[in-house]
Amino acid sequence: MQEGSKKAIIAAFVANLGIAIAKFVGFILTQSAGLLAESVHSLADTGNQALLLFGSKRSSKKANDRYQFGYGRERYFWSFVVALVLFSMGGLFALYEGIQKLVHPHETENLAVALGILGAAILLESYSLRTAVKEANHVKPKNQSWWKFIRTAKQPELPVVLLEDVGAEIGLVLAFSGVLVAHYTHEPRWDAVGSISIGVLLVIIAAILAVEMKGLLIGESALTTDVDKIETAITSHQNVRRIIHLRTEHLSPDEVLVASKIEFDQTLSMVELSSTIDEVESAIRSNLPTAKFIFIEPDIVRQQSVN
Q1: How many CA atoms lie within 13 Å of 166's alpha carbon, on the beta-carbon side?
Q2: What does the alpha-carbon distance between residue 45 and residue 172 come to, in Å, rounded to a whole number?
């Protein structure tokens, strides 16, 4: 894991732990459904950061006979688990609590305490989001939108933290609004509406994360720009005639598998061919350092007969 990703995760962990404790104390004092939903949400987020760090540690294990390409996909797996936790502990609980409050409404107590805690939580969450954005900017192309970055990033941690933090900020605003409107309208169901809105938001974010992590778990190809680098490295060698097939797959954010069939100069001897393949592999790694596993098969283009 890159240092930037780890810094963003640790910042999110510290912020969410403090927020979760403050919100839960606030719920005990105010009995606000929105605060309870946000307490569980922040607790789930805290656990999620721990899962991301755990996945990073697991992914660093060395390859063995059973897992010959290593444990790099552990980062994708635990990021997928994060999506499930966000869906269940965050989204579904908030929906349940909101529906319960609709059925059995009651006034929020100690408004000043509730608003003070939510305001402090917004500030802490803003710190976490600012850290995540700052670290993501180091790896995100300047002309790329944030949505495309989340959809195409091969490092799962930054998109996860970014979406969690954005969801938390919006959720806090919804909770703040729900408590405030419920107090001044003397209609406690507005607090329930805030909790339900938080639940819907978290379910949507969890679904987006699950879809993105599923693609990485199945095995996404390298980015188009990285494939171009590989093709350039191959075709620039004087003994290469053409690329017949080229396949890539991310085994982890920092490890790409490259498999290719290449037509070489047919006058090469076995020794010269072997030396050429070694040189092509070296060129690929020079152009794309994340290309850790490279398999090249010499072949020829067979012309199809015309009847």
Answers
A1: 16
A2: 13
Closest CA to 261 of 244, 242, 276: 244
Q: Which residue in 233, 223, 222 sits closest to 279, CA to CA?
A: 233
Residues contacting residue 267 through CB under 8 Å, at least 6 positions apart:
none
pLDDT per residue as tens digits for the range 52-94:
888 888 888 888 888 888 888 898 899 888 888 878 777 887 7
- Domains with residue ranges and CATH for the chain: 3-218 (1.20.1510.10), 224-298 (3.30.70.1350)
Tokens matching residue 284: 């690929």
Instruction: For 162-217, write each residue's pLDDT tens digit.
Output: 888 888 888 888 878 887 888 788 887 887 887 788 888 888 888 888 888 888 88
Tell me how far apart the 2 most distant CA atoms of the chain are, in Å: 88
Cα separation, 57 vs 142, whole angstroms: 30
**Strand bridging mode 240-252 / 291-298:** unpaired
Residue 70 DSSP code: -
Cα distance from N-terminal residue to C-terminal residue, the chain: 56
Q: What is the DSSP string of 26-49?
A: HHHHH--HHHHHHHHHHHHHHHHH
